[in-house]
Write a structure and sequence with these properties.
Low-confidence stretches: none
Number of helices: 0
Radius of gyration: 19 Å
């Protein structure tokens, strides 16, 4: 069984046991998360349930495994012949979630 969920402005294909990395969620390690924005559910028998936009009554459960920071991203701006250069950067907080169950 698999599902396609929407969280943090992105879509993920998940199945029980899968590990996904989402943008910082602010939950503690070991906390349970419930994703109720399920776009599609595929069952083992080949049956699929598509939502419009979400499948009603479907939930995906997960547990927070880790919280860390992603790679550093550098932003460089330049205007030629104007002596203008700016360097900025940031690191996103990443939450690693292990999917435990898909409920329909």
């Amino acid at each position: 069984m698999f599902a396609i969920i929407q969280t943090s402005g992105r879509q993920f294909r998940v199945e029980p046991g899968a590990v996904i990395e989402i943008s910082g969620h602010g939950s503690d390690m070991g906390a349970e998360l419930t994703f109720d924005q399920v776009l599609l559910v595929g069952k083992d028998a080949g049956e699929t349930m598509a939502g419009a936009p979400f499948v009603s009554g479907a939930k995906v459960l997960g547990v927070v495994d880790a919280q860390e920071r992603g790679a550093k991203i550098r932003i460089f701006k330049k205007k030629r012949r104007k002596q203008y250069r700016r360097t900025k950067g940031h690191r996103d907080f990443i939450t690693r979630v292990r999917i435990t169950d898909i409920q329909v």
